[in-house]
Amino acid sequence: MTNAIETQGLTRRFGTFTAVDSVSLTVPEGTVMGLLGPNGAGKTTLIRMLLGVLAPTAGSGRVLGFDLRKGAEQIRRHVGYMSQRFSLYPDLSVAENLAFFGRVYGLGGDALARRQEELLIWAGLADQRRTLAGDLGGGMRQRLAFACAILHRPSLLLLDEPTSGVDPMSRRRFWDLIYGMADGGTTVLVTTHYMDEAAHCDRLAMMNAGRIVAVGTPRELQETYGGGGGLDRVFVNLARMGDEAAAAHNPGPDAGRGTGRT
């Protein structure tokens, strides 16, 4: 099976702070890979490197066969990206947002018009085409942002906490859209804090303190790290292990000193 994403020792530093620390990760084509970790774990920084908008400090990687360092433009043409902030223009209508992003991706004329209409129906937004994006509810804004991300039929979707702040019904509908894309052969890398969503990924990568601390199917991770609990217990246990490893790797100024107690 061909890998959509391959990284080896991928690292990003900001001054003396290491946001992503020697990450080696493979994501096979057609896989829904969940990326989990606490806030500040490095997930967004990793996605920005995979998207080609942030250069690695060290290490290497390929996305859809393109080198991260040399093929950033090609990567962005073949990858769809959606963040939790839903990068939409609130003063443009639903249809106008689709048209704008379509032109950004190089679509135009009848091809853009057909794709726009197709996505309006697919996302359940046909009746809202003239509504300003800023006037939509959270779930509808989410679906519009997703439609904008897939206008150019990307082979890979990078979704950074795409369900944050929306209601459970909207989350469920959104994941139905993700599964539909995956069934069509699109590879998906998605960050999430919701364990019910993580349970439905093909594979999970657990990240903490900039490092990948475990990779496997949800069942494999539960059996290895769950201690008889579910993925929430896996998350807590791996976060604790990652914190301990980070402390050992970056000891504080008092490391090695005695407390003076006997």
TrEMBL record:
<dbReference type="GO" id="GO:0016887">
    <property type="term" value="F:ATP hydrolysis activity"/>
</dbReference>
<keyword id="KW-0547">Nucleotide-binding</keyword>
<feature type="domain" description="ABC transporter">
    <location>
        <begin position="5"/>
        <end position="234"/>
    </location>
</feature>
<dbReference type="Pfam" id="PF00005">
    <property type="entry name" value="ABC_tran"/>
</dbReference>
<protein>
    <submittedName>
        <fullName>ABC transporter ATP-binding protein</fullName>
    </submittedName>
</protein>
<dbReference type="InterPro" id="IPR003593">
    <property type="entry name" value="AAA+_ATPase"/>
</dbReference>
<keyword id="KW-0067">ATP-binding</keyword>
<dbReference type="InterPro" id="IPR003439">
    <property type="entry name" value="ABC_transporter-like_ATP-bd"/>
</dbReference>
<dbReference type="InterPro" id="IPR027417">
    <property type="entry name" value="P-loop_NTPase"/>
</dbReference>
<dbReference type="GO" id="GO:0005524">
    <property type="term" value="F:ATP binding"/>
</dbReference>
